[in-house]
Amino acid sequence: MLLEGHDLERQTIFDLLSIKEVLLELKNRIIQSPAGPLVKILAQIARIDVLDTSIKEIATEAIQPSVRAKAFRCIFEGRNTWITGRKWVWTDKRYGEGRLEPIIGERKLVTEWPLFENIQIASQDRSSIVRRVAGEFLIRNRKSLGMDGLTLAKKLAMDSSIAVAEQGRFVLDRAET
Questions:
Q1: How far apart are CA 57 and CA 13, in angstroms?
Q2: CA 78, CA 135: separation in Å to the nearest integer?
C-alpha cells in the first residue's frame, strides 16, 4: 500500500516509536519538559498503544499539569482522543455564517486501572487542573463509588480551588436527595 503526504510522515513517526530507546526518550521528555505542546504530542502518540503501559507514570510524574490531566483523563475514560481535522458547520446559511468544528478520533486503551484509586490519586494532585478532572469523574461515577466516593467528595468540597470545591459539593448535594 502506498502512503501519501501526511500519512507517510505519520507512519514514519510511528515506525520510530517502535524503537524502544526512542520511545523511552520521548516518554522521559513528556514527563520532564516544563513547557511546550506536550498534551498534543501525547494525544498524537497515544493513537497507537506504545505508551499504554506508561500512561499512569505520565499521569503522576509529568511536570506539566495539563499533561497529567490529559493522562488521567485517558485512564478514567479508558480511551485516548485526538483531533483528526476540522469540518465547516453552517450556523446561518443566509448570512454565510458558520464555524469549524473538530473531528475527533479515538482509541481504546489496552490496559485497565482501578477507577477509585486513580480518582483518589488525581484528587491529591498539586494542580487544580488535575483535581478538576478527578472531580469530573467523581461526579460521573458517584453512584457506583458509594461511601468511598462521598468521603472523597467531602475532601474535594474543602478544596482551595472554587471549581473543585463546587464539584465536591455537587456530589454531596446529590447524595442527600
A1: 22
A2: 17
Domains of the chain, first to last: 1-111 (no CATH), 114-177 (1.25.10)
Whether the Cβ atoms of residue 66 and residue 87 lie closer than 8 Å to each other: no
Phi, psi of 39 (to 5 degrees): -65, -45
DSSP code for 46:
T
The yes-or-no verdict on residue 129 having pLDDT over 70 is yes
DSSP 3-state of 165: helix
* Cell 487544580 -> residue: 128
Nearest C-alpha neighbor of 59 from the set 50, 48, 68: 68
Cα–Cα distances (Å) from 56 to 31, 40, 104, 143, in that order, read 11, 17, 23, 24
Distance CA 104, CA 26 (A): 24
Contact 42/71 with Cβ under 8 angstroms? yes
Could you give the 3-state DSSP secondary structure of residue 126?
A: coil
Q: Tell me: the pLDDT tens digits for 51-98?
A: 888 999 999 999 999 999 999 999 999 998 888 889 999 999 999 999
- Residue 82's H or E segment, with its range, is strand 79-92
